[in-house]
Design a protein that fits this description.
The structure holds two protein chains of two kinds.
Chain A: H1 2-11, H2 13-30, H3 36-45, H4 51-60, H5 68-82, H6 95-108
Helix pairs in contact in A: 3-6, 4-5
Chain B: H1 4-24, H2 27-50, H3 55-87, E1 97-103, E2 120-125, E3 129-134, E4 143-150
Parallel strand pairs in B: 1-4
Antiparallel strand pairs in B: 2-3, 3-4
Helix pairs in contact in B: 1-2, 2-3
The chains are: A mainly alpha, B alpha+beta.
Chain lengths: 113, 153
C-alpha cells in the first residue's frame, strides 16, 4: 500500500493535481449565474419552445436562477429543437431585470404545458 | 518527482479535457481532448522507448515515433488542403473528380447523388469552376468534386 502511494506521489501527483485544479475551476465557473443576455435568449425563445424544453427550463428556474451549467444544456436543447438561434445584441439591462422578465414569462404560462 | 515531462503532457491534456468537458457540459468535448492527450502521451512514450537498452523496445519506439510523426504530417497536409480549398482562387484538378458542365442555376438542385442527405460546401474558383465538398470537413473524410459552371455571371 505504501509503495503504491509512493509511486503515485512520485509519478502521478503533479498530473492529477493539474486535472483536479481544472475540474474545480471549471465547476466553480459553471456554478455561477448566467448573464442577462442568456436570460433574454431564453425569454424570447419561450413561446416557440416545445414541452420538453419548457419543462427543463422551469426545472432550471426552480431555485430562482439559471446557472451556466444548466444553461449549457438548455442552449443545446434549444439548438436541437429550433436549428437556428438568434442572439440579441447585448444590452445593458441588469441580470436581475432579465431574470425577472423570464420568471414573469414562466408565470404567465402557468397551467399550460 | 519523476517523469515530469510525461506528467505535464498527461496532466495538461487531462486538465484541458476535464475543464472544457465541464465548461461545455459535453462528453464529446472531453473525449476529443482525451484522445488527443493519449496521442501525445503515446508519442512521448515512443520517444522514451527509443532510448531503451532492450532492442525490442527500441523497435517499438521507432514504430511508435514514425506513426506519431506520420499522423502529425498527415494533419498538417489535411489542414493545408482545407486552407487552400477555402481561400485559393484555384483547386488542384487531381484532388477532385471532374463532373463536367453544370448549369450554374441548377447546381444546388443537381448535386452528386453521393451528397444526398449530407451537408455540402460550394467554393467558386477562377475559370467558372466550382468545387463541391459534401459529407465532411477534410478531403479524407468527405466527397469532393468539381464542375464547370455554365451560364455563370
Amino acid at each position: 500500500m505504501k509503495s503504491a502511494l509512493n509511486w503515485f506521489v512520485e509519478n502521478a501527483l503533479f498530473a492529477s493535481g493539474m486535472v483536479v485544479v481544472a475540474a474545480v475551476g471549471a465547476s466553480l465557473y459553471q456554478s455561477r449565474e448566467v448573464d442577462a443576455n442568456s436570460y433574454r435568449v431564453l425569454t424570447q425563445e419561450w413561446d416557440k419552445s416545445g414541452t420538453v424544453l419548457r419543462h427543463d427550463l422551469k426545472a432550471a428556474m426552480d431555485d430562482g436562477k439559471i446557472t451556466r451549467w444548466e444553461n449549457a444544456r438548455l442552449m443545446r436543447e434549444l439548438l436541437d429543437e429550433q436549428r437556428i438561434l438568434v442572439f440579441p445584441v447585448a444590452e445593458s439591462a441588469s441580470v436581475q431585470q432579465a431574470r425577472t422578465d423570464l420568471a414573469r414569462k414562466l408565470e404567465e404560462s402557468r397551467g399550460h404545458p | 518527482m519523476r517523469n515530469l515531462a510525461a506528467q505535464m503532457i498527461s496532466g495538461g491534456w487531462g486538465a484541458l479535457a476535464v475543464g472544457f468537458g465541464i465548461l461545455s457540459r459535453s462528453w464529446e468535448t472531453f473525449t476529443t481532448f482525451g484522445v488527443i492527450g493519449l496521442f501525445f502521451v503515446a508519442g512521448h512514450a515512443s520517444g522514451v522507448a527509443l532510448r531503451s537498452s532492450r532492442p525490442g523496445m527500441r523497435v517499438l519506439g521507432m514504430a511508435g515515433t514514425a506513426a506519431f510523426f506520420g499522423v502529425i504530417v498527415f494533419g498538417l497536409v489535411a489542414g493545408a488542403e482545407r486552407v487552400y480549398l477555402v481561400n485559393a482562387s484555384s483547386y488542384p484538378t487531381w484532388l477532385a473528380s471532374d463532373q463536367g458542365p453544370v448549369n450554374a442555376d441548377r447546381l444546388l438542385a443537381n448535386l452528386d447523388p453521393k451528397c444526398a442527405g449530407k451537408t455540402a460546401e460550394i467554393y467558386e474558383k477562377d475559370g467558372n469552376r466550382a468545387v463541391v465538398r459534401c459529407g465532411g470537413f477534410s478531403w479524407y473524410d468527405s466527397y469532393t468534386y468539381q464542375v464547370h459552371l455554365e451560364g455563370h455571371r
